[in-house]
Amino acid sequence: MARDTPRRSSGRRSPWAAAALIGIGLLITGGVYAGASAAMASTEPTAVASTLTVEDGQKLFQANCATCHGLDLQGSEEGPALYGVGELSVHFQMSTGRMPLQMQGPQAPQKPVQFTDEQIAAIGAYIQDAAPGPSFPDAEVLDGQGDESHGGELFRINCAMCHNVAGAGGALTEGKYAPALHTTSELNMYAAMVTGPQNMPVFNDMTLTTEEKRDVITYLLYLQDNESAGGFSLGSLGPVSEGLFIWIFGIGSLIAITVWITAKSN
Predict the structure, then answer these.
(1) Reported pTM
(2) What's the pLDDT tens digit per position in 20-45?
(3) Nearest to residue 119, comparing CAs of 161, 207, 57?
(4) Could you tell me which of 1, 91, 100, 249 has the fewest CB atoms within 10 Å of its CB?
C-alpha cells in the first residue's frame, strides 16, 4: 500500500504580513516619540511660593547664571543684560528648561528643568528685587474662564502665522521655530505674551489688554482639553502631514491589494 506523503508547506508568507509589520513599526515609533515629547514638556501651571529668600536667589544666580549674565545683571558677550526682565521672564525661561542655555544656537530649546520650583522662584525674586520688571498676574487672568471665541479670533489674528491655527507650532527662518502650545501652562502663555521671549513680539496692554490675554489663554486651554472634532489631528500641521498619511496608508494599501490580487491569480 502506498504511503501518503505529507504535503510540504510552500513557505509563502501572506501578502498582508509585510504591511502589518510596517504598520506595527509606525505605531510603535509614533508612540515612543509622543511619550518622549510629553515627558520633556513642561506643564507647571502656576508660580510656586518659595521658602528660599532673595539672598538665596542671589547665591543661586551667582553660581549658575552670572557667567553669562554678569554678577550685577549687566550681561556679557555670552548673554544679555537682565535689567527689567522681571521674575515673570525668569519663570518662563527656567521652568521650561530653556535656561541655563545648553549651547549657543538659533534659539534656546525646551529641555528638562534644571532647578526646583523654589529655586526658580528665589532667583526670580532676586532679579525682581535688583531690577524690577514684569511680575505674575492675578489668578483671574489664568482661570480659563474668559471668552474662548474672542480669544480664538485674537489668536488667529496675532499668533497663528507662527504657532499654527491649532497651536501646533511651526518653522520660522534661519533654523528658528515657534513651539507647539499643547502642553504650555497658563502662566507661561501669559509670560510669553508679556515678555516676548526669543522671536516672539511683546504684546503689551496697548496691543492686547489683560482681558484679551485672558481670552487667548482660555482659547488655548480649550484646544488642550478638546480632541479634534474631525478625528485624527495628524499633528494639526495641515496638508503636509495629511498628504504623508495618504501616501503611506492610501498608496500602501493599494500596493498591498495589488500584490494580493497577483498572488491569488498565480
Answers:
(1) 0.69
(2) 767 777 677 766 665 655 555 444 44
(3) 57
(4) 1
